[in-house]
Amino acid sequence: MHDTIQQVTDRIIEKSRPTRRAYLDFIARQRDEGLRRGSLSCGNLAHAFAASGDDKKSIAAARASNIGIVTAFNDMLSAHAPYYRYPEQIKVWAREVGATAQVAGGVAAMCDGVTQGQDGMELSLFSRDNIAMSAAIGLSHAMFEGALLLGICDKIVPGLLIGALRFGHMPSILVPAGPMPSGLANKEKQRVRQLYAEGKASRDELLEAESASYHGAGTCTFYGTANSNQMMMEVMGLHVPGAAFVNPGRKLRQRLTREAAHRIAAIGPDGDDYRPLGLCIDEKAVVNAAVGLLATGGSTNHAIHLPAIARAAGIQIDWGDMDELSAATPLIARVYPNGPGDVNGFHAAGGMGFVIRELIESGHLHRDIMTIWHTDLAAYAEEPRIKEDRLVWTPAPVKSGDDSMLKPAAAPFADNGGMRLMQGNLGRAMMKTSAVDRGRWTIEAPARVFHTQEAVIDAFQAGELDRDVVVVVRFQGPRANGMPELHKLTPPLGVLQDRGHRVALLTDGRMSGASGKVPAVIHLSPEALGGGPLARVRDGDIIHLCAETGTATALVDPAEWDARPPAQAPAAQPGLGRELFAMMRAHADEAERGGSAMLAQAGL
Asked: What is the mean pLDDT of the chain?
């Protein structure tokens, strides 16, 4: 192993020792003493299989695995629309190996693409807690020996994992549905967005471009949070190998899902190859997820999600760990918004098989983890194919099929993973540098302070930001308003930067997995609500942001800074169900801990 990767792993193991031990003891008790199907009363069982038709006898006998399906299907969300037929298909495929399957429950699946810049985005981060709780409700019936988790997008995969980890004595497999085929190039879509922001394109022209980009079933094709999720599941060994980026509707996609149904039945607690989720997700797997994220220029949202997932398994990882891993991890993929092509181009160039082989060989990924597959992580350096009507795996290509998107670890795009911990008198934050020109890694400019992204856009349209400026958007943290993404700011800030100005965003909110060329110092903690340092910033303060040194500082006399009263947060607004999440806002912890009310209150 690479020395730094091993050192960070060892540190995470050591600081996690008491919480990880407690978690492992917990899942051992659940396995040995917890409620299970065989101990349910006749009345319990009768309720559980009343609608199961020909599967009733098998479920009642409890001689074979009964698989719980937790599904995030809805047909408003393009990535999850393909899941419509999956439960019925999985039931058929489970019977092929003597098992049964039931839909344990459904979970919410909101689309950040629909809610970007809208009030509904304030529900987005906390939907992860809601999903985790819903998954737990579905699996709580003590009817299952394993779980297939049908989810793919932003908060959905982390939520499903957190919920399933409370049943970590059972095996679980994540079942993706794949990205939509490529449409209008993402770079062209972004160009039209900026023209619209400047008033140079009409709404009809913008809608035409967006519709040509987002045009069918499957995940969006840029490398945002949804597709970063799939990458992480591969490097953690929680997919059938190579399942991440096969398009919906292909025969190979169906065969991979069938294989997941067969495999989950084979790795249950009563078989010879028991692989419980709580042992699959260990400290090494968490480090693999972080390294994969950094090596591929993945979404900044996982600086929040990965600590939350890890915490649910008793593992402690923070931004300092991620910063150190980033400094040691080569950037070997450039996928839009970090590069020219989309995830389909990435997959065609060698995709996850290429990435995993390169990072294992360079010592950046732990090979010796427990995966859901027949062997260790090396199996994920292969590609699935259908040969003579059989699903087979062959070694990933040795050479990249597109050097503009994918490079070997020995000759990377950059010698670091492009995610930086930023610290100073403003607190702790993260900055994604992999999509930002190095000449813009350091910005020093006067602050202009806002409390909403709508106010930023109004100021832009009024010409008030046409200069060097650090746009400060505060009271966007988990406790203030649920920590929405501020991706709506990307086009106007991009316009200002293209005009030659030195521009940056500084916020205690989130940006998007699709954030790109504008320097953005995000997730600032402590958040402004409650007196965090960002609440002291005033218009005109000179802000110094430097990704080279990891600095985020307001250049204000320390005595004056300490004497300043914090600004008052605007009142939380009702509507769109936001008022129902008041308890989550009140109890959420900081972004570096995962921004979760549920985990905080559970004492995890």
From this structure: 95
Q: In whole angstroms, give the CA distance from residue 286 to residue 316.
A: 10
Q: What is the pLDDT of residues 472-515, one digit of tens each?
A: 999 999 999 999 999 889 889 999 999 999 999 999 999 875 56
The residues pairing with 349 across neighbouring beta strands, listed in sequence order, are: none
* Mean pLDDT calculated for residue range 44-59: 91
The structure tokens 């479920």 sit at: 59
Tokens of 64: 């074979």
DSSP state of 380: G
Please tell me the predicted confidence (pLDDT) of residue 112. 87
Q: Which has the minimum average pLDDT: 74-78, 154-158, 407-411, 509-513? A: 509-513
Residue 144 CA to residue 105 CA, distance in Å, equals: 12
Q: What CA–CA distance (Å, rounded) separates 376 from 396?
A: 16
3-state secondary structure of 530: coil
443 strand-pairing partners: 545
Three-state secondary structure along 560-597?
HHHHCCCCCCCCCCCCCCHHHHHHHHHHCCCHHHCCCH
What does the DSSP 8-state code read for residue 510? B
Name the one residue in this structure whose structure tokens are 């987005």.
124
Query: What is the Cα–Cα distance from 430 to 331, expressed in whole angstroms?
Result: 17
DSSP secondary structure code for residue 443 in this structure: E
Per-residue three-class SS string for 314-331: CCCCCHHHHHHHHHHCCE
Token output for 145: 């020996």
User: Torsion angle, CA of 322/324/329/334, rounded to 10 degrees?
Assistant: 50
Asked if residue 111 belongs to a known ligand binding site, the reply is no
Q: Is 280 annotated as a binding-site member?
A: no
Name residue, tokens 């999509």. 435
DSSP-derived secondary structure letter, 406 = B
Q: How many C-beta atoms surround the C-beta of residue 495 within 10 A? A: 21
Confidence of residue 245 (pLDDT cuts 50, 70, 90): very high
- Three-state secondary-structure class, residue 145: coil
From edge to edge, which strands make up the β-sheet containing 100-106? 100-106, 66-71, 146-150, 172-174
Q: Which domains does the chain have, with CATH numbers?
A: 3-34+65-181+216-395 (no CATH), 419-570 (3.50.30.80)
As a whole number of angstroms, the distance between CA 371 and CA 378 comes to 10
288 and 235 Cβ atoms separated by less than 8 Å: yes
Beta strands in 130-280 (DSSP E): 146-150, 172-174
Residues 6+ apart with CB under 8 A from 339: 297, 333, 404, 405
The yes-or-no verdict on residue 541 having pLDDT over 80 is: yes
pLDDT computed for residue 39 by the predictor: 84
β-pair type (146-150, 542-546): unpaired
Question: Distance between CA atoms of 565 and 45, rounded to whole angstroms?
Answer: 61
pTM for the predicted model, two decimal places: 0.96
Could you give the maximum distance between any two Cα atoms of the chain, in Å? 76
Q: Mean pLDDT across the stretch 285-298? A: 97
* The predicted structure's pLDDT at residue 513: 57
What are the strands, taking DSSP E only, across 237-389? 382-387
Return the number of other C-beta atoms located less than 10 Å from residue 548's C-beta.
10
Query: For 356-388, how does the pLDDT look when each residue is reduced to its tens digit (9 = 90+)?
Result: 999 999 999 999 999 999 999 999 999 999 999
Closest of 64, 75, 143, 147 to residue 98, by C-alpha: 64
Q: Which of 237, 232, 240 is nearest to 296 (CA)?
A: 232
Q: Are the C-beta atoms of 465 and 471 separated by less than 8 Å?
A: yes
193: confidence class by pLDDT, cuts 50, 70, 90: confident
